[in-house]
Amino acid sequence: MVKMFIESLKNLTKKPETIGYPHTPSPEPKGYKGTILYDEELCIFCDKCEDICPPGAILFEIVDVENNKREYSYNPYLCIYCHACVDACPKADEGCLVQSETRLPPLGRNETLPKDKKLGYFVNRIEEAKDFDKKWDEFEKRARESREKLAEHKRLKKLKKQQEAKVKKEAEAKQQAEANK
């Protein structure tokens, strides 16, 4: 009992061992898996990161169906930081998709959203934090529709090519028949 009392007195004069959470954020450990950062200039738009992402935090929206132009969008508040997208990226070694050792601040109603080109298009277009979830749901729908439009465009393009080949083949057959007369 006396030992415990003496230890208590010592602890009253020592600096606290704890951190000042929530007023001071806790430091990330070395190798912490944080926010995914993207470099559009290095991307080959293979969609592997989008396909492998378990929660669907990475989406590409096709903004120009004719030229297959895509825009990368990332939801850091949906991401589970599993690193699967970085593992799947064929250009990750070059820095196309990397996982930083920092995290974004929690998304509160009055918070300002982080703006960074490396977070993709979606985050940079949202003005108010309170609209984030609603806008992401709308974006998911729009991205899905853009995929359907691209698939339809490719289907029609393939049909057109097949028809052109058929017409060409018929014309060649007709020419061959006339030449044989």
Largest sheet, in brief, is: 2 strands, antiparallel
How much strand content do the residues show? 5-15%
Strand line-up across the major sheet: 1-4
- Determine the number of helices (DSSP H or I, runs of at least 4 residues): 5
The CATH architecture can be named as: 2-Layer Sandwich
- Kindly, what is the distance between the CA atoms of the first and last residues, rounded to a whole number of angstroms? 119 Å
Poorly predicted residue ranges: none
* Class derived from helix and strand content: alpha+beta
Task: Quote the CATH topology.
Answer: Alpha-Beta Plaits
InterPro entries: 4Fe4S_Fe-S-bd (IPR017896), 4Fe4S_Fe_S_CS (IPR017900), NADH_quinone_OxRdtase_chainI (IPR010226)
Protein name: Formate hydrogenlyase subunit 6/NADH:ubiquinone oxidoreductase subunit (Chain I)
Biased composition (Basic and acidic residues): 161-181
Keywords: 4Fe-4S, Cell membrane, Iron, Iron-sulfur, Lyase, Membrane, Metal-binding, NAD, Quinone, Repeat, Translocase, Ubiquinone
